Amino acid sequence: EVLSLQYSQGQGSTASYLASASRDRLIHVFDAMKNYEFLSTVDDHSSSITAVRFSTAVEGCGAQLVSCGADKSIIFRNIKTDVDGISLTRANQIVGKTTLYDMEMDVEGEHILTACQDRNIRVYSVDGAKQTRVLNGSASDDGSLIKVVLDRSGTYYATSCTDKSVTIYDYKTGDLVATMTGHSELVTGLAFSHDSHQLISVAGDSCVFVWRLPKQMVTKMKNKLALVAPSVKVDCDACEDQDDSDVDDEKFGSPPPELLGPDEPEVPDRAAYRFSVGKLPAWAKPKIENSQSPLPEPIDSLGKRADAPRGRWGSRQVKGPQALNIFPLGEDDTGEDDTGD
């Protein structure tokens, strides 16, 4: 079972390597520029590998392949290419006291953020492999962190916890910015949109949630991104006509009837999205069924109101012509009393 995939960024922001980490403790590296030709396998973890990341070359440190796993260790490997392909030599290793479930690289490529079992975010320097900060990862006192992700500007980081919640923190100050709930199962994936307007979450409940971020957060991320990467486009064509009013004023409702009919809604040829209505997840169906109108009052065969049955047997649902004919104890099908001598 593959638990993590990561592309490296070569010159011109072109992906050159693909690394896959799996539950079998192995990391496989492929050359994405040569039809994903297999290059190397690394086997230096003693348990499942939960995340793998490529660090970009920075001053004083070349590109590295970093991985963390259930063995509570983080391993840094130097990447060197030669005529024979690629070589990965261990540079540093950190062994902690808690299981690591996910990892994220900061914008500058100088630090990594790890999502730990004790609900903390531990930050380590890539050059030297030293712990530099410990940040909060959850507003809850229970559960473990599953995912951590930074936005493109490095202003905020979002986390998911086993209590099915999603939280957003300020990366510089560590202050809690927002807590979101709604998923009925574990949130297994998080991502900030490229235009910094939304946070997308996916979970085991078969749902994808798109959370619209407040205007002040969006502005802060765009301003920071304009400083760290002036050449990066921060606007999205699909959002040009979107109302930027505050999320507190947003009104929710059911989709228009035409979207739920057999005919799909008309979508422009050049649209950057596709809207479709799929089946409800299993957890949502009981809520729909429970909200249906109640059944009519049961009556006996003489047209009189019958007493509702009690106990486990009486709660059984009867289908067919006799579904509403519920007789009190002591009456037969004619409605006459048969309890006499």
Textual characterization of the structure:
- A hairpin with a 5-residue loop joins strand 13 (145-150) and strand 14.
- The longest helix is centred in the middle third of the chain and has 14 residues, at 215-228.
- The chain is mainly beta and 341 residues long.
- Helices cover 8% and strands 36% of the residues.
- The protein starts with a strand and ends in a 27-residue tail after the last helix.
- It is globular.
- The chain has helices at 215-228, 257-260, 285-290, 311-314, and strands at 2-9, 15-22, 27-31, 37-42, 49-55, 64-69, 73-82, 85-95, 100-105, 111-116, 120-125, 131-136, 145-150, 156-161, 166-170, 176-180, 187-192, 198-203, 208-212.
- Strands 1-2-3-4 form a four-stranded antiparallel β-sheet, with no helix packed on it. A four-stranded antiparallel β-sheet has the order 5-6-7-8, with no helix packed on it. A four-stranded antiparallel β-sheet has the order 9-10-11-12, with no helix packed on it.
- The protein is built from four helices and 19 strands.
Which terms would index this structure?
mainly beta; single chain; four-stranded antiparallel beta sheet; 4 helices; 341 residues
Helix and strand element order: EEEEEEEEEEEEEEEEEEEHHHH
Oligomer: single chain
Treating each run of at least 4 consecutive H or I residues as one helix, how many helices?
4
Which outline best applies?
A: globular
Helical content (DSSP H or I, runs of 4+)? under 10%
Q: Any low-confidence stretches, pLDDT <50, length ≥5? A: 237-255, 271-277, 318-335
